[in-house]
Design brief:
The chain is of the alpha+beta class. The protein contains 6 helices and 10 strands; from the N terminus they run H-E-H-E-E-E-E-E-E-E-H-H-H-H-E-E. A hairpin with a 3-residue loop joins strand 6 and strand 7. It starts with a helix and ends in a 6-residue tail after the last strand.
Amino acid sequence: MPELPEVETTRRGIAPLIAGCQIAELILRVDKLRWPLDQSLCQSLPGQTVISVVRRAKYLLLSCNKGTLILHLGMSGSLRVIDAESTENKHDHVDLIFTNGSCLRFNDPRKFGALLWCAGDAADHPLLNKLGPEPLSAEFSGDLLWSASRNRKIAVKPFVMDQKQVVGVGNIYASEALFRAGIRPDVAAGKISRSRYQQLVAAIKEILAEAIEAGGTTISDFRQSDGKPGYFKQQLQVYGREGDACPHCSQPISCIRLGQRSTYYCQNCQR
Ligand SMILES: [Zn+2]
């Protein structure tokens, strides 16, 4: 599933190619992705210009003259900017064609992505208006998590994966950040000290920034007409490594279920 670093990599890949471009045509090849597609966009989008491409959580926001196109990659979606004449491949469900002959093409085998229009301020959209801070923003701090977690009995891992606390910390990055900060994933959120939350927040920011940097090497792929752009394997220390030697102490990595999610950690290094 595309996580925040892949979505940010996608944004960096497509933004310079489509910002400032005028929309000529919208082609919808399916009736619905996660939600039904709004066919009226085929009439209302042409003539508008994509002013900017920003990311909020895992949503890409294409700001246009009359509102914002909200895109989500879902479980399996990817975006490329290609020649509008390129033959479509299987699962190429949406084309946003520009007057310069290029095309933003959305491929989504599992059809769990989203394409929505918001005429008002996108920040007020129901999908966006309850989200917590961006993980790489100054607003997201150890003090903030510490304050929000007082008296909370929920385990720290699902706590940091809660989009109301901070957005974009998915299952892989939560496991990796807790390992880097030396915190057991099943400790009650309310039992963790302010200084350990500061370590955890530093680890979350470092790991996401490293993943985005790793994705930077794939940016040229956004122009390719086939294959999957922008996804990359990061070096993972504990995630998916049950039974492997811990990179710090060589004890085997454990796997437990926590909040219905596979959770990897080192019993020796994480307390
Ligand atoms: Zn260890």
